[in-house]
Amino acid sequence: MSMIWLGLRNLARSRLRLFVVLGLLSVAFYLALTMTAIGNSMSARTEALQGSVNNTLQLRARGSMSHINMVRNDDLIPEGALEQVRSTPHVAKVEPYLLAMTPTAGMGFAMIIGVEAGDTKRLESHGEAGLPRLIAGRDLTAADDGDSVAIIGQGYAEFLGISADELGSATVTLDLRRGHPMIYPMDRPARTLKVVGIYASGYTFGDVQLFMPLSTMREIYGVPEQLSWLYVAADSAENVPAVAAALREKLGNQVGIIAPTNVANFQTRVSGSVQQLTVTGSVLAYALVLIVVFFLMLLLVRERRREIGTLKALGVPAGSIVVSLLTEAIAFTLIGALLGAGAFALTGAGVMEGLLTHGATPWLPARYQDAFASSLSLTAGLAPMTLATVIGAALLVALAGSLYSAYQTLRLSPLEAIRHE
User: Fold this and answer.
1) Domain edges within the chain
2) Please, where are the H alpha helices in 133-254?
3) Which CA distances in Å does 11 have to 22, 243, 273, 284?
4) Residues 6 or more apart in contact with residue 320 via CB below 8 angstroms
5) Mean pLDDT of successive 10-residue segments in the chain (421 residues)?
6) Which residues, at least 6 apart from 177, have a Cβ–Cβ distance to it below 8 Å?
7) How would you classify the pairing of strands 171-174 and 191-200?
């Protein structure tokens, strides 16, 4: 027990050494935990994307983009199709969408989408891979049904000059009489909507969109029954072909059935790119942890050679000396790990977003660069098993470094150890 106490007491034998060693260890752990958390966030996003697509079909009016006011693409899914789809065997969920476009000076146009509360806010032209994340305000709820409220993408918010502080009082006005080369005007009154939330999607065009309650959009655009899209989720991926065949039989040539494929492109070109960078960064970060721990332990033991020589001369057994050295190594490693983990819990989310914005984003396709980092749900949290694995590996290396250096020192005679400089 006295040798364990000696090892612990040696932690503070030099304040400068204490601060330097713990600083190096905590920084190394911090970097390792940061890269691990980024990798976990990317894996979770990829799994969510796959889960939203693998068992899903998209229905549109055949040969049309199915936008209410889009030139030559305004054919909609006919009335009654929604109930026919819902009654199809192996259909687990149906999400109806109504889409329109509104001109925006300088940006061309923004997408206007009506959805039911709780349904996925899919993104036009990249719908199945959007999974936008609310970054300010609140989401649409069932209580908003029929109300003039909306949530908008961060790109649209910037264009309109709406900040998070203005949510609840900020508004956007839809003027249906305005036209555009791709949009024909409609003889319907303008409607002002209160903006209650802002989202980020990770997709530049996806952030120039507005979501409102489906019933509100039906009223504004005068579309009481028809729909633009239906997203149909089968009860399992294996039943998707059977659901598609049944829908073709029921709906005939009125509706085109599309198996979403954009998610593969998203995963390969965005998630894949970031995950490759993350894996490389994680390997380097863990290598840094192990190298720092190993060589710090070597230096700490070598620094105590005179003390070790004195203890040997006094007849202290080699095993007791090793216990003292290992106690110091374990204590340094654990304290450094806890400091790194604490700093990560306090500042990790912001650092991760900064690393993605300035490190990974330039490697992504241009259309993802502006919005990708803010679209991720980055949290400074790690599974206990992950944290235990990192600390356990560092402890093993600390023990290895200490034992190696202790073995080299204990081989010396007491006089050689004392005289060593």
Assistant:
1) 2-48+267-419, 56-235
2) 154-160, 214-221, 240-251
3) 10, 67, 43, 28
4) 3, 311
5) 63 73 81 78 64 75 91 92 93 94 82 92 60 87 95 91 92 93 94 94 80 97 94 84 89 80 49 65 73 73 71 72 76 82 78 65 54 60 71 74 67 58 50
6) 185, 186, 187, 188, 190
7) antiparallel
